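Translate structure to sequence.
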């Protein structure tokens, strides 16, 4: 535990509270205790989303993270990828990063480790229909996957594209 001027820091207090709650709940029956959750990379965010420290999102769900430009949505997604890959619980998963804007300028391996190489960055949706086809293709592989689209706002539609041509 880190001491600051003879007092415990707020982070230490919260960490100890979380540990106390987890210890109190050990051994209690729960339907979701053994369920696999996708970690967010943030213990506090995991707890806020699921009341569990080891994950926040339920596999098979669709999560829409909304925020202003440069709020950290992409960084959160890549932190999720890193945490999920390094957990070892998702070794049979495919990881897809679909980036219609093609504007990611981060050194992913430096920031997130060599696990970043497991993420497929070759899929780029231009339209909502492309995105739908890409998701359907992943589903047809009958293999679990985590698909991150960065960002939905960048997608247009086939109809809109045709109207611009004519």
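Result:
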């Amino acid at each position: 535990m880190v001491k600051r001027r003879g007092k415990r820091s707020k982070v230490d207090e919260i960490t100890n509270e979380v540990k106390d709650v987890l210890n109190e709940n050990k051994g209690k029956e729960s339907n979701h205790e053994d369920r696999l959750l996708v970690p967010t990379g943030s213990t506090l965010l995991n707890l806020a989303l699921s009341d569990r420290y080891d994950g926040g999102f339920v596999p098979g769900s669709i999560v829409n993270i909304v925020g202003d430009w440069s709020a950290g949505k992409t960084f959160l997604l890549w932190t999720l990828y890193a945490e999920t890959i390094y957990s070892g619980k998702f070794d049979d998963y495919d990881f897809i990063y679909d980036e219609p804007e093609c504007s990611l300028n981060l050194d992913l391996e430096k920031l997130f480790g060599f696990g970043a190489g497991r993420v497929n960055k070759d899929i780029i949706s231009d339209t909502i229909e492309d995105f739908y086809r890409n998701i359907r293709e992943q589903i047809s592989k009958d293999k679990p996957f985590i698909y991150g689209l960065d960002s939905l706002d960048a997608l247009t539609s086939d109809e809109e594209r045709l109207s611009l041509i004519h």
